[in-house]
């Protein structure tokens, strides 16, 4: 493969990384907003959050990309560039899956922790910020890691818009060289390398967060005095 074709592939890698970054940011924001909304005390908030989750989980990401890129422009009179259309469609779709991760992790926190926050007269926001999220977030990392890998693979869907991502660039190189096996082997390896690096980063983040929770627990235990025996003898 010539240097010019390799440059085309590398440009596709860069577009894929950008799309992954922006759509992951949007999906993360949607995950926490909708996931926390699923646990809200007001039924209308829970209903709206649940409705959003069911709608976007029940629709195809491919169809959503078509809808955002081809249906919205004539309906509303404006056109999104492919990067932002792909970011919006993927972020909203995968954010619906992520919201269930957030909801499940929050629900798994020991109810006694919530009751302790109520006993301390914490507001719902204070309980969420100071008690629930610090314990729930480390447990979210492994499923979020899997979702991030799925999002990486989902970025290939934007090639239907003619966006020059890795999949689209690989197809152009295949057409130029008429070598399907070689080109798609390279593309598979590139996706694997990106996914492997993402997995390493997420595992490091998980260890860091869980270590922080463990250190806090150890410190709290260390300052607790042991009960004295009879006559003050331990």
Automatic annotation (TrEMBL):
CDD domains: TM_PBP2 (cd06261). The chain crosses the membrane at residues 12-35, 47-70, 76-97, 156-177, 183-201. It is found in: Cell membrane. GO terms for cellular component: ATP-binding cassette (ABC) transporter complex. This is Ectoine/hydroxyectoine ABC transporter permease subunit EhuC. Belongs to the binding-protein-dependent transport system permease family. It comes from the Bacteria. Residues 13-202 form the ABC transmembrane type-1 domain. The lineage of its organism: Bacteria, Bacillati, Actinomycetota, Actinomycetes, Kitasatosporales. It is a multi-pass membrane protein. PANTHER family: L-CYSTINE TRANSPORT SYSTEM PERMEASE PROTEIN TCYL (PTHR30614:SF0), MEMBRANE COMPONENT OF AMINO ACID ABC TRANSPORTER (PTHR30614). GO terms for biological process: amino acid transport. It comes from Streptomyces rochei. Pfam families: BPD_transp_1 (PF00528). Signal peptide: none annotated. InterPro entries: AA_ABC_transptr_permease_3TM (IPR010065), ArtM/GltK/GlnP/TcyL/YhdX-like (IPR043429), Ectoine_EhuC (IPR014342), MetI-like (IPR000515), MetI-like_sf (IPR035906). NCBIfam families: ectoine_ehuC, HEQRo_perm_3TM. PROSITE patterns: ABC_TM1 (PS50928). Its main location: membrane. Keywords: Amino-acid transport, Cell membrane, Membrane, Transmembrane, Transmembrane helix, Transport. One of its GO terms (molecular function) is transmembrane transporter activity.
């Amino acid at each position: 493969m010539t240097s010019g074709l390799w440059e085309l592939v590398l440009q596709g890698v860069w577009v894929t990384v950008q799309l992954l970054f922006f759509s992951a940011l949007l999906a993360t924001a949607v995950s926490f907003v909708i996931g926390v909304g699923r646990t809200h005390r007001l039924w209308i908030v829970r209903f709206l959050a649940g409705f959003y989750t069911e709608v976007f989980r029940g629709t195809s990401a491919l169809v959503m990309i078509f809808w955002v890129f081809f249906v919205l422009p004539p309906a509303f009179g404006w056109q999104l560039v492919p990067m932002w259309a792909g970011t919006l469609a993927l972020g909203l779709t995968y954010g619906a899956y992520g919201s269930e991760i957030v909801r499940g992790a929050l629900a798994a926190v020991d109810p006694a922790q919530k009751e302790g926050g109520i006993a301390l007269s914490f507001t719902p926001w204070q309980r969420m910020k100071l008690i629930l999220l610090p314990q729930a977030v480390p447990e979210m990392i492994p499923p979020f890691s899997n979702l991030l890998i799925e999002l990486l693979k989902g970025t290939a869907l934007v090639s239907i818009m003619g966006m020059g991502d890795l999949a689209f660039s690989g197809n152009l190189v295949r057409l130029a060289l008429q070598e399907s096996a070689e080109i798609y082997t390279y593309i598979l390896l590139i996706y694997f390398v990106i996914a492997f690096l993402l997995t390493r980063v997420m595992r490091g983040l998980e260890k860091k967060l869980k270590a922080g929770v463990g250190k806090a627990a150890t410190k709290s235990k260390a300052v607790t005095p042991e009960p004295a025996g009879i006559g003050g003898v331990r």
